[in-house]
Inverse folding.
């Protein structure tokens, strides 16, 4: 997966507004067998978070309705009502095997590598 900042200058997906409404923090890890993205979605219900795959991108969005019971804050650093993130998928990702789950306010997306990409390591003889 590549982040939005890593794919600048490339054509962006045809969905969503020109700029994301708000961004939520995302951590992406790579292992020998795949990629795992951790999307910080605290305060968002699982039913209101969506993951959409296209040919080359993964699109993550969420919405929430803040309760009106909140007082008038002196400082409010958590005003997020919605978010949108997208990432370009690597050619090494098996798009048919991508899964997502919600764990304690964090959306975890597993994107396994193709078998060919997993077996790419080999020693090169030196002549």
């Amino acid at each position: 997966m590549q982040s939005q900042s890593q794919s600048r200058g490339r054509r962006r997906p045809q969905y969503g507004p020109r700029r994301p409404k708000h961004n939520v923090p995302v951590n992406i890890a790579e292992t020998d067998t795949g990629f795992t993205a951790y999307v910080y979605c605290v305060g968002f219900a699982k039913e209101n978070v969506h993951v959409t795959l296209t040919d080359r991108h993964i699109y993550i969005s969420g919405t929430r309705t803040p309760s009106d019971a909140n007082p008038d804050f002196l400082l409010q650093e958590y005003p997020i009502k919605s978010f949108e993130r997208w990432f370009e998928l690597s050619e090494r990702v098996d798009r048919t095997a991508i899964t997502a789950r919600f764990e304690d306010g964090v959306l975890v997306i597993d994107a396994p590598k193709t078998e060919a990409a997993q077996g790419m390591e080999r020693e090169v003889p030196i002549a």
